[in-house]
Amino acid sequence: MRPSSQGSRYPYECSQPYGAGREASSSSVLMRCAICRSFVTRSMGMSDVIETTQNYGTTPPVLTRMERGRKVKDLDALTKEQKNRLKAQGLTEKELRRREAVIKQLITEMAEHGSLYGSGLRQEAANTLGVSVSTIDRWRKKYEREQNITVFIESKRGPIPGSRMSLEQEAIICYFYLNRKQHSRGHDGHVVTLNKKSTVSFIHHILTKFTGFTKSLQSTRRYLHRLNIADPIVVARARFGKKYLEEHLMPTLPNNVRRPNIRWQIDGRPLPIYVRYKGLVCTVTLLLIMDDYSQYIVRAGIYPRIIRDEEGFPKRADFTKKDVGVLLASAMYYAQVRPEYVYTDHGSQFMTLRELLEDLSEEFERMTTLTNSIPGRPQGRGKIERLLALFDALLKDLPSFVDEKGGFNAIQAAKRDPEMYTFERLCAYIQTEVERFNQQPPRKNGTKTRAELWTETEAMPAPPVRRMLHLVPESMNKDVAISKTGCRIDNDLYEPRIDSNEDMFQWMLALTRREHIPMRAIKLDEPLYRTPEDKGWKAQICLDPDNPYWCELVPSGSQRFDEATYNQMLQWVQNRAEEEGDSRPEQLLPFIKSFDPSELMKDVHTKEPLLPEEVATPEEPLVKPVIPPSSEEVAGKRKPRRKTAGARPSAKSTPPKDTGVDWESMPTFDDLLREAGS
């Protein structure tokens, strides 16, 4: 052999044409060429080819002399086919019991006397059962060997499959069928082992080349078919691997939970119906969140396939990870509960939730975990799959429904239906069906509805809004100013939700500080739930950042308090402020050690603090304190300011009044300077 030159994943190929100058021996290890598919051998002894014969004597651990069909040792375990065969032969269970009793009596007599020949018991038994003496002898021998009542059922005559093969031929078939190793050897003697299953034609080729097997390929297939029936687990594990047994063959235990809100299942599918959405005829996708225990529909979302391709047809086939995040956040927010597990398949829309769900829980709280079903096994999510199929059945009577049996003509007829539903009308219809479904018991003999089962026990509280910012595409994270009317989000006025006296007190505390405080907001889904409370932003505000006190924001005016409740809250806040204000000075007195604050006085004239020992006694003469003049008195005594020589007179100046003074003879400023210099 030589290295492969054709780019094959097999590293070696033959150096000679197929069948040229190659002699095989029974004491060699078989290897196969990756290019020409021929065989080469490596001398290592027959133990590598038929390894099982050394450890198990002359019989390999797989069936080499397989009988026709499986033997049932209990009449109660007979299949329908075997019962029909009995009925066709005119046999009943009573007749089989009678045959068994007669044969047991013959075996007992033979054990006591050593032989039945010459006693006439064989002929008597044959007359009793209406069969020949040879049949009696055959039944006796088979019953002694198998101790099975089914030996009295006549089976199909003919050779047993595989009985005409030698022990070596059967061992070769079983070895290469159960062994996933194929060897290749190069011209340098290097051997490469490939992990690959051997085909039936390859095994038949081995038999023909090395053992002189002259039967057809179909005979080898029949033998392997009997091998699969005789030992299916060994064959399945050898051919398909351990993972195949775990995922496809191992029995599954019930995957049920013991109380509600432990596990939520999420899944979706396109609905077979056309609707009108903003002038576009399109289909929609239904996404459901269901509680595993009660089968209660926690939240439902409908999403139109509105993205068009270059030809104008809807392009979006399913939902996205944003749709899943918004729906899950909406379900937890409106239900005010949080599941312990979210159970989905391996869709890319769901796998992104794994890291996001870990941030939903507060400190020292149990986290919500994402779990996935086994790939290729949708039966692990059978509850929600059946629920989605139920919605397909509910739409059959609606216009524009597409019957899967109608083909292309049904699709065209649905698109042209004049009574086609609008998207909003379909949402209302599905919402009605969801509410009706939740008011029914999950099982026919059940007494409690899904809604009652869902709410019968407590669950983990829903995460706050600030913990769900990463789940939704539209969120807000900023500091805002708050007033006595609330704060604004997108030009809409919101106010803190007042559920207790403490909420009212914290709101007043935030107003007193006059600072910007943290606010977190998200936008949830609104396709099916269009109540006024569901619209707009869902927000939280931190009224006290020092000692974090978060309060939910609601649209302004949505809270309704009667006069008595409002007055009670206001009186409680006033009393608390009064208690804290009156008690605070008393609490601070022990920390003031320099003087006694209760004896401190203030001088009414000097505004200085005075202690009792600094106050003058009545025997001492009182000194009248010097009071500094006020600003008005100082201004009254001040001389009027004279104008300088270079000052510009105002445009509307009035002539001075006649005061009897000769102004012309008055010296000027320059004259005064000259006199001062002389």
Describe the protein.
- By secondary structure, the protein is α+β, with helices and mostly antiparallel strands.
- The chain is built from 21 helices and 21 strands.
- The chain has a six-stranded antiparallel β-sheet. The protein has a five-stranded mixed β-sheet with strand order 9-8-7-11-12, with helices on both faces. It has a two-stranded antiparallel sheet with strand order 1-2.
- A hairpin with an 8-residue loop joins strand 1 (2-3) and strand 2 (12-13).
- It starts with a strand and ends with a helix.
* Helical residue percent band: 25-40%
Number of discrete helical segments: 21
What separation lies between the terminal Cα atoms? Answer: 135 Å
Count of distinct structural domains: 4
Uncertain stretches = 1-59
Radius of gyration equals 50 Å
Largest sheet: 6 strands, antiparallel
Q: What is the average per-residue confidence, as pLDDT, rounded to a whole number? A: 77
Class computed from helices, strands and strand pairing: alpha+beta
Concise description?
This protein has 21 helices and 21 strands.
How is this fold's topology laid out?
Layout: E1 2-3, E2 12-13, E3 29-32, E4 39-42, H1 52-55, H2 80-88, H3 93-113, H4 121-129, H5 133-146, H6 167-178, E5 181-185, E6 191-195, H7 200-210, H8 217-230, H9 232-240, H10 242-249, E7 263-277, E8 280-291, E9 297-304, H11 321-335, E10 337-338, E11 341-344, H12 348-351, H13 353-357, E12 369-372, H14 382-394, H15 407-415, H16 423-438, H17 450-454, E13 460-461, E14 475-480, E15 487-489, E16 492-496, H18 501-513, E17 517-523, E18 537-544, E19 549-555, H19 563-588, E20 601-602, E21 609-610, H20 631-637, H21 669-677
Helix pairs in contact: 3-4, 3-5, 4-5, 6-7, 8-9, 9-10, 18-19
